[in-house]
Amino acid sequence: MPRTHTTTQGETWDLIAYDCYGDAAERPELLMHHLLAANPDYREVVIFDGGIPLTIPEDPEPSALESLPPWKV
Fold this sequence. Notes:
Blueprint: E1 3-6, H1 13-21, H2 32-38, E2 53-56, H3 63-66
Antiparallel strand pairs: 1-2
């Protein structure tokens, strides 16, 4: 079941990914596309205002990073 994250002023997608997936992956910022897919209304946002609720999908499978080309890892 997805959880939620309420943004704080100045957060960015990669910081949110690190906060949410930091323990699940070696490079959590590479998993921010999961966050973008779960929150399409905010995909144009670069720096968040505070108080925006975002849906956080379940931790991705470890194989999510294994399928990336070497230059993205």
